[in-house]
Structure formats: structure tokens, C-alpha cells
Amino acid sequence: MKKALLSLLALLLSTAVLAAPTPSLVIYNGGWAVVRDYRELVLAPGINQVELTGVAAKLDEGSVKLRSLDGPISLLEYSFQHDLVDPSVLLDRYQGKKVQLISDRGIQEVELLSHRQGIIVKAEDKILINPPGWLGLPLAEDPILEPALDCLIEAGAMGRHLVELTYIARGLLWDVNYTGTLAEGLLHLDAWAAIRNDAGASFPEANVKLVAGELNQRGVGLMKAAAFVQEGDLFEYHTYTLGRPIALPAGAAKHISLFSREVPAQVRYSLEVGQREGVWATLELDSPSPLPAGSWRILDGDSGELIGQGVLGHIAPGQKVTLPLGRSFDLTAKRIKLEEKDRGWRKEETFQVILTNPKDEGIIIKVVDRFWGDWEVLECSLPYERPEAHLLEIEVYLPPSAEREVTYRIVTKE
């Protein structure tokens, strides 16, 4: 009796099916992802024809890979069936073929000539354009209701196989939404990953890794992340691995917390001559860790109201971040040309910038002007810098409720 029970237990264990691993998605900024899914197949010895449904409608046909976790199998051939039931797709299949024209007059056999700019059929010796009634299509094969892979798989023996299906799909994308609150020289920054599934398949449960960056941009150094997210590196990219599986239904969008942190930040003012009108307020901060590309919004810490928004590119660790908040309502600036001497091969120009600060606190405005060609500063009423070949930068301190001028003379040689 005991021997029989042991034999039965061994049989049950031999036929038990191990739980399939959770599917995984590796989603890139560019709008595509690597999908890794698992299926249970029962294969006979030799060649098996298998249909794998539930794949993404935007599957990259050249990226399919199939392997068994239980024993050797070979994927000999596959085709991607993705022309789903759709009037245009169906009519394409029957163009140039006989169909039925069904109307109040009965059923007539006609030839479908075109359907792009309306229905055009040939009935005996006549061409009919948009004839009354509707078309009946002979059912040659079952219509495709969902995307599928038709596969030929070779197996060595009869048995169950847990197979891993891997492919690349378009339509899975993510970026970051940053919300910052500015108070007393600190920016409290919350980053949320916005994930959207337009791949044409639902993923009821999937482990998700988000990959930020572009080719040859390397994210090193880690930012303190939310407990739900683990950061890392993948080749020349920076990654965020979500700490638990999430559901991504077709067409759905989700927001997942990436990290929160406080960074020192300072509001600065600048006049960008020829770039934008007036004096602009910008927020400057250093990024000790990578910041993936995305949109940002800055709120005032006292009122909670919006004081600036925009779009941020990928930021490498240690890179200075400058966020343009908006044009200052109170601070004013005016640039005028006082003098010009043009001798053909040599031109001298004198400019004056008049700045006004009606605030009850002193501020610094950076005047940024641009010149091209072979030029140099002959004279400037305040200290200046040339950080780049075409840039002239002058920092001007304005006391409370004050007006101040800066004058500079430039020579340009042909």
C-alpha cells in the first residue's frame, strides 16, 4: 500500500506544472519595449503547429525569440497574424473577387473593383459606383479577432513545456512628470513615471523596468529613490525597476512614484538680448544624480500656486539645471545703441543697457549679449565674462528701488 502511494505521488509530481514566472516589460523612452512572456505548451514529438495569442498588435516581426525552460525545442517558422477584423482590411482581401451585392432588389453577384473612395463594383457589363445596398463577403477563412503568432515548433518528445516568448513591441512608452515646491532656497522635487500602453495588448501583471537615456549617454551615480523603485544601469542607460508587478491594460496610462528629494535651488534673473523680451526669472540647481527627460512644474512654497512649467531633457549627474520660470513683471530692461562706427573692415558699436528694480530687496541681473565673428570688448563699465566664443555676460547688482546702467563697446573685424 505504501509503495502504491509513493508511486502515485511520484506520478503527480512528474505531471505537475510549475507556476509560470511573471511576464516582464523593459520600456524605453523612445516608445518601444522588450516584452518577455511565458506560456505552457503541450508538444508532441516532431513538428507542432501552435498559435500564440495575446501578443502585442505592434509587435516587431523580426524580433521574436522562443525557448523552453523544460527541454530542447526549435522554433522552425512563424508568421504574425495582425490584420484584425476591420471593414477596410476585409475589403482589401476581396478586391478583384466575386462578392454579393444585397439590396431590396435581391442578391446579385458582382466583382469588387475598389473601396478606397467609395464602393465600385462590376455588374455584368456595367460599372456601379456606390450602389444601394450592402456587400456580402464569402467566408473563405475565419477572421482574425486578435493578434497571434502562428508557429511551427519541433520537439523531441511528448510533454509539457513552459516556454519563454520574447519580442520587441512599439507603443509602450514612458516619461517623467516632475513637480517641485520651492521654499526658502530648497526645491522639494517629486518625480512620477508616466507609463502608457498603446502596444495593442493587455498585460494584467508584469514586472516593469524603465530605461532612461539615449545612445552614448551614461547615467552613473544613484538618486535616493522611492522604496518601490530600484535604480541601476544598463549599458549606456539608466534604469528604474519597479518593486512589484503592475497591471497595464491596453490603452491605459499609469503614474508611478520614482523618487522624492530636496535640492538647493536659487532664483536668478537674466536679460537675454535678442533671445526673449524682458528680464526672466530662472531656477538653478545642481543634479547630483541623473534626471530622465520629462515635463516639470514648479509651485510656490507659500501659496502653492504655479510659478513655472516646461520640458526637461535628459540630465546627467552633476550637470547644472536651469529652469526658465517666466518673465518678471516688475523688473525692466532696455538696450540701446549709443554709437556705431563702420569702416568696412572694422566696426565699433557702443551699447547701453538700463535696468530697473522696483523691489524692496537687492537683486542681480545677468546681461547676456551675443556677437559673431572676430570680435572683442574694447571697454565695459562693469566686469564681464566671455564663457563662449559668441557670448558676453555681465552681472549687474541693483539695490532696492534702484535703476542702473551698464555700457560696453564692441569691435568686430571682417
Describe, in plain words, how this protein is organized in 3D.
This protein is mainly beta. Among the domains are: 24-83 and 145-169, no CATH class; 87-136, SH3 type barrels; 332-413, Immunoglobulin-like, CATH 2.60.40. The protein has two helices and 29 strands. The strands form five sheets. Strands 13, 14, 19, 20, 21, 22, 23, 26 and 28 form a nine-stranded mixed β-sheet that branches. Strand 19 and strand 20 (279-287) form a beta hairpin. It is elongated. The model is unreliable at 1-17 and 215-231 (pLDDT under 50).
What is Rg? 34 Å
Q: What portion of residues belong to β-strands?
A: over 45%
Which spans of ≥5 residues are poorly predicted at pLDDT below 50?
A: 1-17, 215-231
Helix content: under 10%
Largest sheet: 9 strands, mixed
User: What's the β-strand tally?
Assistant: 29
Number of helices: 2
Mean model confidence by pLDDT:
85
| Morphology | elongated
Termini separation (Å)?
106 Å
Computed structural class: mainly beta
